[in-house]
Amino acid sequence: MKRSFIREILEAIDDETISFAGGLPSEKLFPVKDLEKASKKVFKDKKHCQYTISGGIKTLRKKIAKFYCEEGFETSFENILITTGSQQALYIISRFFESKDIVIEKPSYLGAVNIFKTNGLNMSAVKLDNDGIDIKEFKKEFKKSKLAYLIPDFQNPKASRYSNKKRETISKFVEKTGGYLIEDAPYSELYFDKKTESISKYIPNNSFHLGSFSKTLVPGLRIGWVRADKSLIDKLTQIKETIDLHSSSITQHILNEYLENLKSYKKHLNILRKNYFEKMEFFAKSLEKIIPEFEFERPKGGMFIYGKLPNKNTKELVYKALEKKVVYVPGVEFYVDGNISDEIRFNFSHSSKKEIKEGLKRLREIYN
Amino acid sequence: MKRSFIREILEAIDDETISFAGGLPSEKLFPVKDLEKASKKVFKDKKHCQYTISGGIKTLRKKIAKFYCEEGFETSFENILITTGSQQALYIISRFFESKDIVIEKPSYLGAVNIFKTNGLNMSAVKLDNDGIDIKEFKKEFKKSKLAYLIPDFQNPKASRYSNKKRETISKFVEKTGGYLIEDAPYSELYFDKKTESISKYIPNNSFHLGSFSKTLVPGLRIGWVRADKSLIDKLTQIKETIDLHSSSITQHILNEYLENLKSYKKHLNILRKNYFEKMEFFAKSLEKIIPEFEFERPKGGMFIYGKLPNKNTKELVYKALEKKVVYVPGVEFYVDGNISDEIRFNFSHSSKKEIKEGLKRLREIYN
Questions:
Q1: Cβ of A50 and B218 within 8 Å?
Q2: How many CB atoms are located within 10 Å of the residue B44 CB?
Q3: Neighbour-count burial for A215-251, b at 16+ CB within 10 Å, e otherwise
Q4: Which is nearest to A346 in space by CA: A106, A5, A21, A9?
Q5: Over the range A106-137, which residues count as b (16 or more CB within 10 Å of their CB) and which as e?
Q6: Mean pLDDT across chain A, nearest whole number?
Q7: pLDDT, tens digit, 9 for 90 and up, residues B248-301
Q8: Residue B192's closest CA among B339, B322, B79, B297?
Q9: With an 8 Å Cβ cutoff, are A220 and B111 in contact?
Q10: Are B236 and B81 in contact, with CB atoms under 8 Å apart?
């Protein structure tokens, strides 16, 4: 099983191993001082530690709704459900659509694939190009399923971004057929040039737009959300309530307090983008120098570089890499029906420049 | 549907309404200063804000395991899975046992009933007496289901505690038949006299023992756990990973840091027990004085007083109560096949003494 393999890899990692495997944000950039300040305020009011409503605290939902409104995507707090990371949003939506057919990208995010399997969704994987999903194939499959799961911004694992044209085509087709789009957008804020409009913006009643503070702020808050039509949010909230009553009210209040200083958050995002762009550039240049046969395109955002090492079985080689104390995820892990063997996903956000160089040098030795 | 009714009640509550309805702990006793101190330490290490393993942080699991060991119930951190409240533990276990038969108490915790319904478990409800479930009936049903959900300490809603004899009979029967017991124990620490041994202690491989810090510390942490055999915990951890990757690492670390000062936690528990006992006594005496026809037994712990108002339809009356700005939960809500009408669950932990007196006076008027 796919999941066990990744776990097998991750469990084999010790402190000396350089990991390009996980989708971890850079710890160095965590704004812990501001979070500590926020938490100090939170604990001043005992009510913040009490049970709260399943949808999430209103003040935080209002702030998230405002982010959408600022981008011209009309949204009220009633369109927002707070979840324990966007992973849980995906789980809840999958329970809602239990046993239905669904179109996914090929390759796709493993966590989603496992959720769909668990909830009996029947996946049909459509080829993902560097400018988005193959439209012809998408239309054919979506016509049947009326449900799709896409990651249009800096996809995991492929790091691709959908073109505006494909976005438009998809939104029109989803609306026309009366289907639903699950748009997973954890990396959307991590752009290197400018932000692209979501597909959901044009189909507010036919979409679930998933966001998260795990990549932009810190994963440990475990706060994500889903934006959808109010009647859908109400149904998802009932499922959420059954699963865990509500996500931590303490971390919701800490985040809410932190976001009171919006300038500081926006500044933080800019630092993050700049830093990740530099890291990506460094990783890309190091790859070109140390492993020039690796074929890839520079991503326009996100956390991953994805590419191809011609004529090598990257899954077999990962065990040798582990012996050399370096690790990545072989591309085949992200395919439901994987018969490819030469692809690799590298994470560039978590390692230091020194580690990137050293890690790629170690890989050079085993790729010879 | 049951859930909607309770929600309907809770949503009708405004700030002026005195609520005996929810299972809310007393905010006044939340140790927010100590939690704030703990959180300050947590934010000193950026790693505490990173992703963590699905089972929960090891240091916290070790501390919870130690609580069991101190009571002679051998437990290692590998027997513990951290969950988002014990609600989530119950959800995860229910997904594990999907579509099986299960014995529950009559009446039982509504949150559990909804989880079982959602996951297709087929419930068979057995009468709960003041010293525990009806044994004859339990044996008959458990023989078929091999699975039971019980709340032996200060049950929700009935506030009853199982006798030692019934505990022994149940543990032996569960072991003999090779079945499983789900023992929900959120109120176990809230005893007024002394702690009773869990049933699970005698069947460590045939039980899931559920605990929570929501009633003993603060609900907003959303930290509960399940204690079970390692091989079962491994399976539950996979389900947990699919649902939300992991519970907030920040609140796990805050709790872990707080528990470093064990003396302080134990002192807090003693204050809580003393305060709740006083509250219960005050509520009971006020009931005897103001609504003497209400039939009940004083609970030995927990948060609820449960009883009977002969010849009154307590569900019909709750709407009148709401008009008078006071609310409780009619007992019928806790019955899967409810054809009783005269029972009531009162929460005594959350309201002040003044509110208790005033609330009962308002009820007096509508019960005439």
A1: yes
A2: 11
A3: bbbbbbbbbbbbbbbeebbebbbbbbbbbbbbbbbbb
A4: A21
A5: bbbbbbbbbbbbbbebebbbbebeeebbbbee
A6: 95
A7: 999 999 999 999 999 999 999 999 999 999 999 999 999 999 999 999 999 999
A8: B297
A9: no
A10: yes
- The residue extents of the domains of chain A are 2-23+265-367, 46-260
- Chain B CB contacts of A110 under 8 Å are none
Gap between the Cα atoms of B67 and B268, Å rounded: 16
Q: How far apart are CA A363 and CA A361, in angstroms?
A: 5
| Beta strands at B207-212 and B132-133: parallel, antiparallel or unpaired | unpaired
State both tokens at B8.
């309907």
Can you give the pLDDT at residue A1? 42
Q: Which CATH superfamily is domain A2-23+265-367 in?
A: Aspartate Aminotransferase, domain 1 (3.90.1150.10)
pLDDT, one tens digit per residue, over A322-356 is 999 999 999 999 998 877 899 999 999 999 999 99
A6 DSSP 8-state letter: H
Which residue in B250, B258, B349, B351 has the most chain A C-beta atoms within 10 A of its own C-beta, making it the best mutation to test that interface? B250
Q: Which among A23, A353, A357 is positioned nearest to A190, based on CA atoms?
A: A23
pLDDT, one tens digit per residue, over B44-59 is 999 999 999 999 999 9
Query: Residues with Cβ < 8 Å from B31, sequence gap 6 or more?
Result: B217, B218, B258, B264, B268
Nearest to A153 by CA among A353, A299, A5: A299
Give the whole-angstrom CA distance, residue B249 versus residue B253: 6
Joined tokens for residue B309: 């108002």
Angle made by CA atoms B360, B363, B366, in degrees to the nearest 5: 160
d(CA A260, CA B282): 42
The answer as to CATH 3.40.640.10 being correct for domain A46-260 is yes
Q: How far apart are the C-alpha atoms of A25 and B21, rounded to whole Å?
A: 43
CATH top-level class of B32-260: alpha beta
**Which of B13, B83, B84, B268 is best to mutate for the A interface (most A CBs within 10 A)?**
B84
